[in-house]
Each structure stands twice: as C-alpha cells, then as structure tokens.
Specification:
Layout: E1 15-19, H1 24-35, E2 39-44, H2 47-56, E3 60-65, H3 71-85, E4 90-93, H4 108-136, E5 139-144, H5 157-178, E6 182-189, H6 195-200, H7 204-213, H8 222-233, E7 244-247
Parallel strand pairs: 1-2, 1-4, 2-3, 4-5, 5-6, 6-7
Helix pairs in contact: 1-8, 3-4, 4-5
C-alpha cells in the first residue's frame, strides 16, 4: 500500500508533548508531528534511543529523560519541555508496557507497579498541561488505549485492566475540560507490528491466527496509529471528543 498522507496546517507551530516517544508507536507519532511542522517534545526512559530518534528526524524536536512512574520527575520534565518549546497545545499519553503476566502469580506490589506504568501518569500529565490549554482557549489530548480487553485477551490482566480504565479517564476528562474547548479522545490500536511485538510475540502461528480475526488482510504498521493521532490533534477533528477511535483492521 502507498502512503500518501494528509498535511494539517492547523498543527504547524503547535507544541505537542508525547509520552513514551522514543520507540514503537511513540516514535512514529513523534515523526508524524515533526512532519506537520509541530514543535515536538517527548518523554522517555531510554536516552540512547531518544537521541537517535531526534538525530534522525527533521524538525523541532526535544526530549527529556524520566521515569513516568515518578510523578514529580515527570512534572519537572514537562516543565523543562515547556521552557524549551512553549505551552502544550497537544498531549499524547502514549507510554505503556504490555508485559505478560499470569493472574495467579501477581502480588500487590506488581499490580501497583503496572498501574503506575500504564495508567497513573496519564492523569497527572493531563493535570500538568491542561492549565496552559485552558489559558490558550483549547487543546487536544489523545490517550492510547488497547483493543486487548475488547477482545477479552488473556495473559496480562493488570495491563488490560489499566487499558480499560483509560477509556473512563478519557470520558470523564472530556466532560471536565470540554467547556474549555479541550478535546479528549482515546485511540485504540489493535495488534501493531512494532519491533517489540515482532521480537517477542509475533510467531507465524500467532500472526496467522490474528489475520483471521481481522477484516482486513494486512498486518498493521505503527504509522497508521500515528495518522489517527495526528488527525485527532488537528482542527479537522474539532468536534471529536470523549470517544474511541479504532485502528485495528476490523479485529473486534
């Protein structure tokens, strides 16, 4: 398939913040906004990969290294990006890890750590950037969900629980912030062929089984998730809020 993608003039010059931006879907989102002429800042834990992405991507890009489980550290990193790039017009809550775990082996400490990794930072990132969006008269927030729980996927109950909660966060924050013309939506990826997925879980048998669940025959490249995020951040999506936008090739 060819990739003749849209340009959104409304995104040029806007400051966009992305969590977990160094690799996988996050890296594609960074590149997509940079190509729109946005001022892009991202957070990640991997300094080497972050620097490599920044060096390889044209545009106004900055990154800060922090562990998103440490909320004060994240807040400080966001403040530094604001100093460098200006107040955020767009926030993409992308960071998460879908590590597998057995339901009968989880202890409370692991459960809490998974919530901190996959959910808690999303709310506090919104809390950090929303005042500037309010002052500017509007903004866009995109939270990354997952179709794993829609499909009743097993093998990682703490992850699917956190991802299901993302939809509740989106809906309630869309209501709380909507009066300020801040739009909040969830993008719901299916099984996206990142390098991590291909390395750890994409066996020929698993891929064939998954193809049979999709309506479309093609496996999903991360770029298509990024395209949905870019659309929802743009003024073209000005009347889109409090909803789920699926990028899963019809697999539910």
């Amino acid at each position: 398939m060819g990739q003749d993608f849209a340009t959104y003039p409304s995104l040029a010059g806007r400051t966009v913040i992305i969590t977990g931006g160094a690799s996988g879907i996050g890296a594609e989102i960074v590149k997509a906004f940079a190509a729109q002429g946005s001022r892009v800042g991202f957070l990640d834990l991997d300094e080497t990969t972050s620097a490599a992405l920044t060096d390889a991507t044209e545009g106004d890009i900055a990154f800060e290294i922090c562990d998103l489980r440490d909320i004060p550290a994240m807040q400080a990193a966001l403040a530094r990006l604001k100093e460098r790039l200006g107040p955020a017009s767009v926030l993409v809550n992308n960071a998460a890890r879908d590590d597998r775990h057995a339901w009968d082996e989880i202890d409370p400490a692991y459960w809490d750590e998974r919530m901190h990794t996959n959910l808690r930072h999303m709310f506090f990132a919104i809390q950090a950037v929303a005042p500037d969006m309010i002052a500017a008269g509007g903004g866009a927030i995109v939270n990354m969900g997952s179709n794993s729980w829609w499909e009743a996927g097993g093998g990682f109950p703490a992850y699917t629980t956190a991802k299901a909660a993302v939809h509740g966060l989106t809906r309630t924050m869309a209501r709380d912030l909507g009066g300020h013309r801040i739009r909040v939506n969830t993008v719901v990826p299916g099984w996206i062929m990142t390098e991590r997925q291909k390395t750890l879980w994409a066996t020929p048998e698993a891929l064939e089984k998954h193809r049979q669940r999709q309506c479309l025959p093609d496996l999903i490249d991360p770029v298509y998730v990024a395209r949905m995020v870019v659309f929802l951040a743009s003024d073209d999506a000005a009347m889109c809020s409090a909803n789920n936008y699926m990028v899963e090739a019809g697999s539910i």
